[in-house]
Automatic annotation (TrEMBL):
Species whose genome carries this gene: Shinella zoogloeoides
Residues covered by the DUF112 domain: 20-438
InterPro entries, A to Z: DUF112_TM
Residue ranges of the TM segments: 20-49, 61-82, 109-135, 147-163, 169-185, 316-335, 355-379, 391-411, 417-443, 464-488
Entry protein name: Tripartite tricarboxylate transporter permease
Keyword set includes Oxidoreductase: no
One Pfam family matching this protein: TctA
Source organism superkingdom: Bacteria
Taxonomy of the source species: Bacteria, Pseudomonadati, Pseudomonadota, Alphaproteobacteria, Hyphomicrobiales
Keywords: Membrane, Transmembrane, Transmembrane helix
PANTHER family, per the entry: TRICARBOXYLIC TRANSPORT PROTEIN
Keyword Nucleotidyltransferase: no
């Protein structure tokens, strides 16, 4: 069967009433949490992991993907109206979008962000549908050496791409790898680092760690900030619709942002932040209105927002075809797959094609839902910005605790939730990224298993790991995954951030 036939089957799965409901819940929640400053899709998916433990796998994963897309949509509202980027990928949107809002053009800024996100999401999702099968065919030739090299690439990627320091990223990764060895050895059956505690024989629960690090840690971090001067929300003045000139200045940045964001999101060393910064630089070069940049150029909103959302679809290419997470949300989605006994990768396309293609097709439906939700209901999303932070984060803390109790009613598990929550809080205080810890716990056992198999085949010869051409290329990419983000950050991001700081002054 071809891609069209599989995609049509996926649409039939995604169009089932319950799956449509899950998609609607996902995009609504994603938009809501994207609007709220400081709360991202990774935190929301982590909170929902224990709640969805006994639900249908297809419906839950469709909901998680809807949250991912919705979070990318909603983040523009906070950046434009509040000048508060929820994540690094929204810095550029805040730079130009908030200037437009202050000039009374918040409506067109929100409209070009929403429509650009729709265009980019639609094109990038179709790209995902047609590219992923080719990656799967290539990955079917992988042996233990190649899979171990792929795991190394994943480890280096998350360490280099998250946070501003590669060393801190690697430190966080090794924390996760240290937690991954706790429990019973998969090959020998011996208990490791369980300290005689029966609850540790099955290892650390990924769900507990994800909820603790993202939700509990974030709540404690926000609580320690104390009361600050409330941010001013810019009112949406005039019509939210774009003028003919706005359309003429936006459609090319939408397309350019899409074709910049999708391949960078699919790259192991890519990410939405790199894509948005490159898109901004590109639009500044191509625009006929260069003097408006830094003062509210609509191209500076349209291009980066398209790149931001296209990269979200791009990250699903390595996740679904190789089991390789390149963002924090993708790492949590990988944990969502594993809680149902599913491992993303080439075999998943063969063993469970309905689920995979239903998930891909649901993204097309989610894009239409998001367009309908974002433009007419912008007033509702703006009101969410008025929720007092103590109420908001107290609710998150309560929801995280009840979700953990529901999934695993154990006093020991609650103790682990608090312990890892304190660890996540400490890592935020000292500037260590959270995602590498989760990725280390998820992929650590797989990397260990593949390494031991490869060494057993080569009779302990370590150099044999590099003899495979595919493995050698993957190890080379792992090296580039460290170097490329450093170069891109130094050349592109530094210039934009300095301009952002200058405009703030």
């Amino acid at each position: 069967m071809g891609t069209f036939e599989f995609l049509l089957q996926g649409i039939a799965v995604a169009a089932q009433p319950m799956n449509l409901l899950y998609a609607l819940i996902g995009v609504t929640l994603g938009t809501a949490v994207g609007v709220l400053p400081g709360i991202g899709p990774a935190l929301t998916v982590a909170l929902l992991l224990p709640v969805t433990y006994k639900l249908d796998p297809a419906g839950s994963l469709i909901m998680f993907a809807g949250i991912y897309y919705g979070g990318m949509y909603g983040g523009s509202t906070t950046s434009i109206l509040l000048n508060t980027p929820g994540e690094s990928a929204s810095v550029v949107t805040a730079l130009e979008g908030n200037k437009m809002a202050r000039a009374g053009r918040g409506g067109p800024a929100l409209a070009t962000a929403a429509i650009g996100s729709f265009v980019a999401g639609l094109i990038a999702t179709l790209g995902l549908a047609f590219i992923a099968p080719f990656v799967v065919k290539f990955a079917l030739s992988f042996g233990p050496r190649e899979y171990f090299a792929l795991m190394v690439l994943a480890f280096v990627t998350v360490s280099a791409a998250f946070g501003d320091s590669t060393l801190r990223g690697l430190t966080a990764l090794f924390v996760g790898l240290g937690l991954a060895v706790i429990g019973i050895d998969q090959q020998t059956g011996q208990a490791r680092l369980s300290f005689g505690i029966p609850d540790l024989l099955d290892g650390i629960e990924v769900t507990t760690l994800a909820v603790a690090m993202f939700a509990i840690g974030e709540t404690l971090y926000v609580a320690c900030q104390g009361d600050r001067i409330p941010d001013k929300v810019e009112a949406v003045k005039g019509s939210v619709w774009m003028s003919a000139q706005d359309w003429a200045r936006s459609w090319k940045p939408w397309l350019r942002g899409t074709f910049i964001g999708f391949p960078i999101g699919a790259m192991p060393a890519g990410g939405a932040d790199i894509a948005s910064f490159l898109s901004y630089s590109t639009e500044k070069q191509f625009s006929k209105y260069k003097d408006e940049f830094g003062k509210g150029a609509i191209e500076g909103v349209a291009g980066p927002e398209a790149a931001n959302n296209a990269s979200a679809a791009g990250t699903l290419v390595p996740l679904l075809s190789l089991g390789l997470p390149t963002t924090a949300t993708a790492a949590i989605m990988l944990a969502g797959f594993q809680q149902y006994g599913l491992q993303p990768g080439p075999l998943l396309f063969a063993t469970n094609p309905q689920l995979v293609w239903g998930l891909i097709a649901s993204l097309l439906i989610a894009n239409f839902m998001l367009l309908v939700l974002n433009l007419p209901l912008i007033g509702l999303w703006v009101k969410l910005l008025t929720i007092p932070k103590p109420w908001l984060y107290a609710g998150i803390l309560l929801f995280a605790t009840l979700g953990t109790i529901g999934a695993n009613p154990s006093v020991f598990e609650l103790g682990m939730l608090l312990t890892f929550g304190l660890l996540g809080f400490a890592m935020r205080i000292f500037g260590y990224p959270i995602a590498p810890v989760v990725v280390g716990l998820i992929l650590g056992p797989m990397a260990e298993q593949q390494l031991r198999r490869a060494l057993a085949i080569s009779q302990g010869d370590v150099t044999a790991l590099f003899m495979s051409p595919i493995a050698a290329v993957l190890f080379g990419l792992a090296f580039l995954a460290v170097v490329v983000p450093l170069i891109l950050r130094a050349r592109g991001k530094g210039e934009v951030l300095s301009q952002f700081a200058a405009n703030e002054d």
